[in-house]
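Annex B, item 7. Sequence and structure tokens for protein A, then protein B.
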Amino acid sequence: MDTTNDFEFKQRKYMPVFPKANGKTTAYIEGYPCEDDEPMSATGFHGEQIAAIYEQFKRYFAINELVYIGIDSFIYYSEGDITKCVAPDIHIVFGVAKYPLRRSFYTWAEGTAPVAVFEFLSDATARQDRNEKVGVYLNDIGVQEYFIHQPELKKPAEFRGWRQELSGGIVEMEPDAEGGLFSEALNLYFRCEEQHRTHVRLLRPYLPDGTPITTSLEEHYLREAAQARAEEEAHLREAAQARAEEEAHLRQDAEKLAATEAQRRQDAEAELEKLRTQLANLQRQ
């Protein structure tokens, strides 16, 4: 199977459908800070997790020009109040132009709010992520789904999600037997994968049928593996063809030898019959 074409088919099949937002693409509004003194990620574990899932989202949503993916940048959600802002690790917005990139995201200017937000737990912000931010994201900002995850493998596993119901209430999502959660907003399934070499508990997105969304490096390795398998299969086919041709040559040689032996026996029998005839004639004389 052509895995690339297969993924592209599924990518179109499972891509969410949503309307275009009624606002205007806004890269920056004067007076709203777009930077602070905090590093992009609290630890290397967070950096590994953020980089991986950002690339996976970017690859998956690449076919839709109306999906914006923000990474560790401010979301302002109340015009005129610069204190009403958050900076989630990852946020995804539907219905707005993918480019140009924004310094910050302004909900009133763009005419919509992120559909999903992801926070990766750190010691400094874990309490807020588990508690206050649930209401801020889902009630104050209008985010549809909010997820938290602990990427550091040596710490207790924690992957939780909340969604906003049509009635306006907030409910926590029920994990499946593997601890995974399904995002109705993104139409994607999420499950953790332990990577012992890097000590990262990596949160990964999957298509609804279980197909993983890979990073470019993983895709490179998959392509190399597929190419190696194809080359090995070609070598096996060539070897099988060579064996078949050799066996055909051996059969032909055996058939020629058998024909030669048969002709030799036939000639010998004819010669013997000739001698018998000659002998019988001599005896009758």
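Protein B:
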Amino acid sequence: MKLLVINPNISDDVTALIESEAVRSAAPGTELVVRTAGHGVEYIETRFESLIAAGAVAEIIAEYSTESSTGGVDGVVVAAFGDPGMPALKELTDVPVIGITEAALCAAALQGHRFSIIAISDRIRPWYLDCVERFGLGGRLASIRSINESLNAIGSVQQDFKETLLALSRQAVAEDGADVVILAGAPLAGLARKLQGQIPVPVVDGISAGIRMAETVVALQSGPHRAGAFAPPPAKARRGLSENLDTALTAAQSAAHAAAPSH
């Protein structure tokens, strides 16, 4: 199995954190291709920054979505909490595209009734709330707690705020009634392992959940979307797209047309 793991922000330090946790989480035999967004922002906190990131992620998926010099992939993991571009990116390719938010929420829902999200900034909270509600789990969200201090560097959030993140997690359990804690965002990748045993409920790491969920969905071999809400976009005139994106759209539309029932 070959998974494409995309960091939707431009921080190479965060990509290194993603790759380290992805390698630890992946099953033996799973090959990982880890890529960083070609344009965008250092880290994503807002809906608009997510919009920018979605385009960068789409370009990378398009590059790998057809058999070419890249060899193709079996699944994609969008490795930023908030899932930039999701669920729209599921329309672009035949392979499963899994966001770490939806993976973490599924993992949390399987382990408890109410969950809390621990985030790296106050500004990011409205966007995260949107994501939970879009996924239909707003009624099971106990709280979103976040760091309310300026970050020194996105790659060192874990080291700089480890005790704060631990305290927020414990408060979510004791004060908000969380059965599960989700450590949100790629900058916190691997922190759940470091805090093991220090939080009295299950703790979900988004990157780990994303990798394991992607492996599971790929292995299910459920088949691609050819109709319904996630079918490829219909063919129509377009201009100004990159060669990769244009080719990926054409391939997706051709596959959907070929699969359509004849009359």
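Comment on protein B: The CA atoms of residues 26 and 212 lie 7 Å apart.
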